[in-house]
Design a protein that fits this description.
The protein is an alpha+beta fold and 287 residues long. It has helices at 24-28, 46-59, 68-81, 126-131, 154-165, 210-221, 233-237, 269-284; strands at 4-7, 10-13, 31-39, 42-43, 87-94, 112-119, 133-139, 170-174, 180-183, 187-191, 197-199, 226-228, 241-246, 250-257, 260-261. Helix 6 (210-221) links the parallel strand 11 (197-199) and strand 12. The chain is globular. The chain binds pyridoxal-5'-phosphate (PLP). Pyridoxal-5'-phosphate binds at residues 35, 182, 185-187, 207, 209-212, 245-247.
Amino acid sequence: MPRLAYVNGRYLPHTEARVHVEDRGYQLADGVYEVVAIIDGRFADLDGHMVRLGRSLGELSIGWPVSRPVLEMIIRELVRRNGVSNGLVYLQVTRGVASRDFKFPEPKVKPALVITTRKVTRFATPAQLENGVGVLTIPDIRWLRRDIKTVGLLAQALGKQKAAEAGCFEAWMVDADGLVTEGCSSNAWIVTPAGVLVTRQPDHMILNGITRLSLLRLAGELGLAIDIRPFTVAEAYGAKEAFVSSATTFALPVTRIDDRAIGDGTPGPITLRLRAAYFSAVAGGAS
Ligand code: PLP
C-alpha cells in the first residue's frame, strides 16, 4: 500500500500530493503547523498540540480548516491507513489559496490543510543516547512572534545547517543580551551545579513547546527544583547537565555546547529520568 498524504479533503499517494502555486503558505509563509509523535501506537501530547494549533491559528486570524474533532479523526485515519505505530504526524494549515497579495484575501478563502506521516524505526540513535549530542550557539535573527508556530522557518533552517556543518545536532539561538532563547526546533534546558532545572519563560521570544510543558509537569511530579528563567551561554557552559526538548527528541541529552563539554561530558541523570518519565507518561496516557 503506498504511503498516503491528506490534502484538502483527499487521501492521496504521497508522491502525487500537491498544493496550489498560490497557496499563501508557499508564497508568504502565511500558515502554521504542528508535529506530533506516535510512540508504540499512542499519540504523544495530541491534546496539547491541538490546543497550540488553535492558538497559532487564532493569533493569525486563520480559521480551523475543519473542526478540531474532525481534524483529529482525519489524523487518526491517515495514521491508520499508513500503518504508523512509531513515527510522526506533520500537519499544516495555511490561510489558503488566493491571488498573491500581502493583505488577507477578501472575501475569505478556505484554509488549506495538509497532513503527512512518517514512520521512524527509532527516535534517537544509540550513540545520541549514550554520548549525548552537541549544540552550536548562534545569534537569534528571527522575528518577534516566535510564540506562533508558523511555517516561516528560514532562520531555523540556516541555523540547523550551520549546526550540521559544525558537527552539531542543534543550534541554540542567543538574544542580544547573551541569553539563550531556544533551539532551532527545540526548547533549551540546563541543570545548574546546584541541581536546579532551568528553562526560559514562555513569552513572545520562544515557542512554548508542548513537550516542554509536559516535562515541566513531570519534573514537578518528580519533585525536581525548577526555575523558569533565561540563562546565558556562559551559565550553560558551566551547567551540570543540558538537554533539548521537542516532539521528536522528547528530552535529549546535550553533552557539548560549542567546544565545551557539559558536566562530565556524559548524559545527565536528570535528563535521562525526564526522558524515561515522558515515555512512561505517553505509554500510560490517553489515545
Ligand atoms: N522551539 C522551536 C523553535 C520549535 O520549532 C520547536 C518544535 O518544533 C520547539 C521549540 C519544541 O516544541 P514541541 O515540544 O511542541 O515540539
